[in-house]
Amino acid sequence: MKTSSNSKITVETTVKIPIEKAWEYWTEPEHITKWNNASDDWHTPFSENDLKVGGKFLSRMEAKDGSFGFDFSGIYDNVKLNEVISYTLGDGRKVLVNFKVNEGETNIIEIFEAETTNSNEIQQSGWQAILDNFKKYAEKISNTRYKMKELLFSIIIKAPKEKVWNTLWGDNTFRNWASIIDEGTYMVGEIREGNKVQFISSVSGYGVTSKIVKHIPFEFVLFRHMTDTMESGTQERENEWTAGKESYFLAETDGVTTLTVKIDVPREPEETFNTRFPRALERVKNLAEITQ
């Protein structure tokens, strides 16, 4: 059955998470690539999103066997934080997405103009399947996040913040202090805003892939842990750390630096971190002060 280009189709769901988190998972590329597929034999290996009026977005949608793929792309017409997104697709069709608070949960309603190749039923089924997949992903990752506890650590180091920063993230010194927390830990990647880095243990082979959300050189860095990862980088284990955040803040006064660390930790290793992280920061202090 052919459809008129004026037909509009509605799909909707209710996600059991706060609206701020629903917006985050809906709009950030590292999340989009996890839920943007209608069936398990499809995936979205790449996504980019310039979330502003006039900004462009693109999600590459492909069959996992490589038999077919296409770019789902468009330009934003309207963006109101935690409320409304509207955009025009590459073929000229319009899409409206409304986010509404409902007693601590989030209603998401999508209204899109139908294309003329497939029936309304097929199109509605496909878009609803993707929306259902978003709900499944968002609730799972939020439940993981809520099971974590934010730990706070602080230490005073008699060294300039530049020295402390280089001690934290230099390859040799990082391995030195991080191995106190998890033996054999090393970092792959460069500390730069927007980059992805991996923290991996060469002993266990496990670690996490993280995105650098905010970076102010020698002062602040915020990591968002995206995926629990094995050393090969090609496999995932149970998403124990996914969605957690970890930040390092350095404040210097008269050549003395206060280093403050906030880290979301799953409940199971909480006691271990409370024991080992202060020891690791003492190692940072010793390394940074040794040449002062």
Strand order of the largest sheet: 1-7-6-5-4-3-2
Average residue pLDDT: 91
Share of helix among residues? 25-40%
Main CATH class of the largest domain: Alpha Beta
Query: Which structural class should the secondary elements be placed in?
Result: alpha+beta
Spatial separation of the terminal alpha carbons: 77 Å
Number of domains: 2
Oligomer: single chain
Structure report:
- The protein has 292 residues and is an alpha+beta fold.
- Helix content is 28%, strand content 42%.
- The protein is built from six helices and 14 strands.
- The strands form two sheets. It has a seven-stranded antiparallel β-sheet with strand order 1-7-6-5-4-3-2. Strands 8-14-13-12-11-10-9 form a seven-stranded antiparallel β-sheet.
- Strand 11 (206-216) and strand 12 (220-230) form a beta hairpin.
- 25% of the residues are buried.
Notable characteristics:
292 residues, alpha+beta, Alpha-D-Glucose-1,6-Bisphosphate, Chain A, domain 4, 2 domains, 7-stranded antiparallel β-sheet, 6 helices
What's the short version?
Helices cover 28% and strands 42% of the residues. It contains six helices and 14 strands.
Furnish the topology, listing elements before pairings:
Layout: E1 8-15, H1 19-27, H2 29-35, E2 42-49, E3 56-63, E4 69-80, E5 84-89, E6 94-102, E7 105-113, H3 120-146, E8 148-157, H4 161-169, H5 171-181, E9 185-188, E10 196-201, E11 206-216, E12 220-230, E13 245-253, E14 256-266, H6 270-289
Antiparallel strand pairs: 1-7, 2-3, 3-4, 4-5, 5-6, 6-7, 8-14, 9-10, 10-11, 11-12, 12-13, 13-14
